[in-house]
Amino acid sequence: MEQVMRPVGVVDEVVLDEAVEPSVAGISWAAVLAGAIASCALTLVLLSLGAGLGLSVVSPWANSGVSATTFEIGTGLYFIVMAMISSAIGGYLAGRLRNRWVGVQSTEVLFRDTAHGFLAWAVASVLGAILLASTATSLIGGATSGAVQAASSSQATGPMDGYVDMLLRPNNPTAENTANIGETRRELVRLFTADFRNGAEPSAADRSYVAKVVAARTGLSQADADKRVNDVIVQVKADLDKARKAAMKLAIWLTLSLFIGAFSAALAATEGGGLRDGTWGKKAWLR
């Protein structure tokens, strides 16, 4: 009688749960890596396309290449589109190539597919940061990578040379006042580079010295030389400030593209997993 009165239903439920417990792992790393590698490769292709469209012809300096504002908006939108495409394809592959889970509830399958897409995006982001950083930098260019760094190079030309030209432009050019201008130009370039580094500006002593050099080289009065120096310094500060603001806004665009890429990868993985199991669009949660 004791055997007849046992809760047969409970025993059957336990046996059933043990019978349908899947033997495969909840994550397929092979599928995740495949999706991540595909995403990185497609990102490189899209970066090359962006360079071909002119995104590498960028400069924060006036009348030189694409403006910082155009770079910020155009490249920011392109980064978002690039993240959506590459992440969606990587996530779709991660969901479509994973092993099929037999006996797993539909809600759990949906969660695992979403996790596969997110992990594919995460691995692709890490790999991209390691492998594609230098490539992306060379392709996209240095719109906000620091005019001061370029000015500090040992080459004869650089962004600061335009400002020095303004300082040393003589009112009445003669052979005498332009004969030895090369060394003076290099000296002022070095002075401006050091003074404007890290957001600083020339000190009072440097301003006074530069004004004297300008007066001697251009034939301007000391008052006019002081005014020219102050005008050029204001212009340099404004251009560098625009470049820094463009860099900050570009960082926001990049962050936004990463979030959108993660969402796209997770969503595409659920679609790929549903197509893998034949449940996409059939309301599998009602089974």
Number of strands: 0
What is the succession of H and E elements? HHHHHHHHHHH
Percent strand: under 5%
The share of residues in helices is over 70%
The largest sheet, given as strand count, sense and whether it forms a barrel, is: none
Describe the structure.
- This protein has 11 helices and no strands.
- The longest helix is centred in the last third of the chain and has 56 residues.
- Helix 9 packs antiparallel against helix 10.
- The protein has 2 domains: 160 residues, no CATH class; 94 residues, no CATH class.
- The radius of gyration is 31 Å and the shape is rod-shaped.
- It is mainly alpha-helical.
At a glance:
Helix content is 72%, strand content 0%. It has 287 residues and is an all-alpha fold.
